[in-house]
Amino acid sequence: MAIDISNRPDRPLRKVTIHQKRKKGLTSDLLKLIAVIAMVIDHAAWAFVPFSSIAGQTMHVIGRLTAPIMCFMVAEGYYKTRNVKKYAQRLGIFALISHLPYTFFQTGKLEIINQTSIMFPLFLGLVALIIRDSPKYETAVKNMIILLICLASMIGDWGGIAVVYILIFGSNYNRIEKIKYFCAASAFYIILDIIMCAASGQWYTDLFKLGTFLAVPFLLKYNGVRRGGKTYKWFFYYFYPAHLLLLAVIKYVIL
């Protein structure tokens, strides 16, 4: 299905001036690097550290930084990329590439039919933004498609909440309002998880997800500047499946 994105509210592409280069705050590349470090800490904990230990819980709290930052950067990329179709294609391709490394990391097996990685919800979140801004559909149809997208994303890590985050960060609200809606969505998501865990008598097992709110100060410090080149951009794409594969090999093959 061809999607018309002619109505996308593009932001004007501007040259990076000396003033912008010296702008205070966190650049997009530094923000992504923070997400990568938090992600490695989190995945290392899932692979090698007991979940209920203090070290394990601390590492998982830090790991909650990753998804909000990744969702924020997808929304930023939607507005700032020169070609949103190619951007969606990249995310879709790397969602496919990341599937087997993710299942190998999770189960020790290369499985086609299994939960997939967060790259899939990130891809669907971008598609949801494209649908939302397309003049091709009526509002009711858009809402129905986006609801179906949220349901489809449930087979991926973080599931529908990742799509919701991307829609929030890709809204027309100012930064503070976006953060408020992000916090509200996160609170609802975490409380719902705790209630579900309480049904089994272990309400405390998902408390580490409160670490999601640690992303707020980092997102508020984002200055909209990008300093890295194409090599740095591609690094983040390739690093995700590569580090999963490496951790899986260490866990299941070497150890």
Distance between the termini: 46 Å
Main sheet summary: none
Proportion of residues in β-strands: under 5%
Write the element-wise H/E pattern from the N-terminal end onward: HHHHHHHHHHH
Mean pLDDT: 90
List key phrases describing it.
about 260 residues, mainly alpha, 11 helices, globular
Explained architecture:
The chain starts with 17 loop residues before the first helix and ends with a helix. The protein has helices at residues 18-21, 28-48, 54-63, 66-80, 84-107, 119-133, 139-152, 159-169, 175-198, 215-220, 230-254. With 255 residues, it is mainly α. 66% of the residues lie in helices and 0% in strands. It is built from eleven helices and no strands. It has one domain (25-254). The longest helix has 25 residues, at 230-254.
Describe the SSE topology.
Blueprint: H1 18-21, H2 28-48, H3 54-63, H4 66-80, H5 84-107, H6 119-133, H7 139-152, H8 159-169, H9 175-198, H10 215-220, H11 230-254
In brief, what are we looking at here?
By secondary structure, this protein is an all-alpha fold. The protein contains 11 helices and no strands.
